[in-house]
Each structure stands twice: as C-alpha cells, then as structure tokens.
Amino acid sequence: MEMTMRDKVDRYAVLQTIIENSKKEQDSLKSFFETQAEEDLENTKLKTVEYWGSKSKIVVQNSATVKPISWVAVKEVLGKTANDFIKEETKYTLNDVAKTMLANMFKGDYIEDSLENVVSKITENKKKQNVLMKRLKGKYKQDMKNIIKYAELDESEASDYAFMIQEVMAYQMILRIIESSGFKGTVEEAVSKVKSALIVDEGIKVTLETEK
Fold first, then answer.
1. How confident is the model at residue 75, as a pLDDT?
2. Alpha helices, DSSP H only, in 182-211?
3. Fewest beta carbons less than 10 Å away: which of 66, 91, 159, 162?
4. What value, to the nearest 5°, has the Cα angle with vertex 112 and ends 139 and 86?
C-alpha cells in the first residue's frame, strides 16, 4: 500500500527522532570513552588507548594542534631548513615532522641525552647494545618490543626505557634541525622562541575501527 503524504511526514518525524536519540546516545558513549581514556592515559607517556568490542574497537588519541602566532620566529628557528618543513601557499602550513618537533619543544616532551647513553644503561652487553642502536627508532611500542626481545628486560622496565628513548630521539631531532638551520642560539633559546610563537591546542579524538 502506497504511503500517503501524511504517512510520509509521520515516518520522517519518527526517523528524525531516532536519529536525534541515537546521536545523544553516541555522544554520551563518546564522552565515556574520552573520560575513561583520560584516566587510563594519566601519568603515562602514551597518547593512544584502544577499547575492543566483539568485532570493532574504539581508538582514543590525545592530539596536539600546533598554531603559529609568529611565522617570523618559527622561520628564524628553522633557518635555512624552513623551506623543507613549511609548505608555502596563500598561507604557511607546517608538515607533520615540523608539527611533531615544535609540539615536543612547546610541551617539553624531550630529554637532553643521547641514544648511545640510554642504550648503555639498558644493557652492558656490547653485542646487544649494537643491535639496539640499529633497532631503536623513537617509536614507543616497537622500541618496547625490541628492548624486551634483545635486552631481556621485563615489560615495566622496557616501557620506561622506550619512553625515555622516544624523548631522547625527539631531542636529537631538535638538535639536528637547529644545527642545520643555522640558528645561532641554544636549544633553550630556540624553545623559548617557539613557546612565544605558537599555540598548541591539546585535544582528544575518538574513532571507531571495525574488522572486515
């Protein structure tokens, strides 16, 4: 039987109510995941946490959006390498490497140390040190697996060292960029300039991934 105009209007109203109620329920669940993630990520260096359902998972990720106030100061720090990291259109935009580096400088997510020094603390075995020097890349999860595998540390110790390496590698990246940029000041002076030239908005993102 064909729906009348009245039937169609009534059906549309029902569907609209379902959509609105579903959106409210989804927003409530999203808020739950954000709150739970804040609690689970607190006092850790992790930026992402996953929650699994039967065939889907929720991924909650802390994010940092870098917004320059002064491009002059940013370009001074990047110096001769500015064109390698800044995409110039009608406006300036930072590439992902520069965003990560500047966010690390702004938030102090770096440790002034060398990879060699950290590896020497992980193990005294020279062969294992050589392997780790090749394997460790500043990627927390993979570095943690490699430390457990090659240095035979427990998960807790490996996690601590993996975080340390991540921040040491961030510092080494800052050093390399500053040295190649021709910036004449110290790292501390570069960080001070970055902090005066940027706004970093920290947020949280919830995404759904479903197994196919």
1. 79
2. 187-197
3. 91
4. 65
CA 199 from centroid of its chain's CA atoms: 16
> Are 1 and 94 part of one and the same domain?
no
97 and 26 fall within a common domain: no
Q: What's the whole-model pTM score?
A: 0.58
Tell me: do 104 and 196 sit in the same domain.
Answer: yes
DSSP letter for 4, please: P
**Strand pairing report for 86-88 and 56-68:** unpaired
In a domain, 53, yes or no: no
How would DSSP label each residue in 29-61?
HHHHHHHHHHHHHTTSS--EEEEE-SSEEEEEE
Residue 147's closest CA among 123, 112, 171, 117?
Answer: 123
For the chain, how are helix, strand and coil distributed in percent, rounded to 5? Answer: 60, 15, 20
Which two three-digit tokens encode residue 40? 């689970």
Neighbouring residues of 167: CB distance < 8 A, sequence distance ≥ 6: 45, 104, 109, 110, 111
Is the CA virtual torsion 182, 188, 189, 195 positive or negative? positive
Residues 6+ apart with CB under 8 A from 86: 71, 74, 75, 78, 92, 93, 94, 95, 98
Amino acid present at 103 = A
Could you report the average pLDDT of every consecutive run of 10 residues in the chain (212 residues)? 89 93 92 90 83 91 73 79 75 80 88 94 93 92 93 92 94 89 87 83 70 61
